[in-house]
Amino acid sequence: MTTTTPTLPPVDFAARLSGRAQRMTVSAIRELLKLTQRPDIISFAGGLPAPELFPLADIRTAANAVLDRYGPAAVQYGTTEGHLPLREWIAARTPGLTPAHVQIVTGSQQGLDLLGKILIDEGDVVLVEAPTYLGALQSFQPYGPRYVDLPTDEHGIDVDALETVLKATPAKLLYAIPNFQNPTGRTLSLERRRRLVELTAQYGVLVLEDDPYGKLRFRGEDLPSLYEIALELAGGDPEGSHVIYSGSFSKTLVPGLRDAWVQAAHPVIEKLVQAKQGADLHTPIFNQMIITELVGEVLPRQVELVKKAYGERARDMVARIEQHFPAGVDFTTPEGGMFLWVTLPEGLDTTELFPRALERGVAYVPGRPFYARGGGANTMRLSYSNATPAQIDSGIRALGETIRGALD
């Protein structure tokens, strides 16, 4: 007697995925980074902090101090809200804020995802800068928003256009990066900050302020955050602020510890806690304790170190662009952060240009993925944070030659 092994029918996984999963997209930047790992490629693509600036010795000392002080508790489960001393330190930076208004998240990217989960329903209108941070679009997309682009210029969001949009469109949320915006490097002016906060309050629109780069100003004067302006208009009461603030230690200390936070009114924080419980229970407590050891003395020193280095690299890149790029190419001159934005003459497509740039040994991020509703074919993002002067010189020279070749 012979037996046959039953053959299982093929599984149509695509048909069984949720609508939310089918709306998920691959990060264009992450895919590009796979192409730039060759040692001969000079990459201005990834927004990577400079690893040679990481305070490794301080982190090692802090880790040992945490283990000595807390013992097994340093590697035990922790509270969802986050390590209380760290939340206290964050709250103390803003008058009127309490630890109860602060939620620790595992990187600001998780914060964006969880905020999208608790704030965005299918079809809700979400206002975004054109262009805006690709990672935010990727986080929000599964929740089914309807994006409305806000025009921008060298001073950030065009608030006159914002007012026109708000009069015509019932929006749920406005997502903005006021400081050294990703991808453009632009900074929203003080006048526009105040008007944006006033307009969104008037029309009942929540504002999500993403501020991973705010401490990295290397030129000009510091400006108040949207959250601080809203808090002032609310009489200092965090419960009256319609602005939700997202901050991070990834760009000032190190990205690998994945420590960031959200500060907001209690109703938002309460739901954020519940969403995080379902996501990962809590951010690793050991990492939070290490960060807490570093914020007193190491963080201020590290911020100054990073600002100086990035300022020098940004000035170097701007000078090389002026030297090597052809006429008709526009670019931003950032006051801080990690990026600048390049706009090529109409008719050029930076996605099509990318393989030619790789052949010359240089990489960037094409601008199109940063537009929620399409556009930006002739734009690109360049990061100067993780590049040496020699790399900036030869990389920008090669990129200029690539652009000239496309124009010929």
Automatic annotation (TrEMBL):
One of its GO terms (molecular function) is transaminase activity. GO terms for biological process: alpha-amino acid metabolic process. It holds the Pfam family Aminotran_1_2. Transmembrane segments: none annotated. SUPFAM superfamilies: PLP-dependent transferases. Its cofactor is pyridoxal 5'-phosphate. Residues 69-399 form the Aminotransferase class I/classII large domain. Its EC number is 2.6.1.-. Keywords: Aminotransferase, Pyridoxal phosphate, Transferase. InterPro entries: Aminotransferase_I/II_large, Class-I_PLP-dep_aminotransf, PyrdxlP-dep_Trfase, PyrdxlP-dep_Trfase_major, PyrdxlP-dep_Trfase_small. Belongs to the class-I pyridoxal-phosphate-dependent aminotransferase family. Homodimer. This is 2-aminoadipate transaminase. It comes from Deinococcus budaensis.
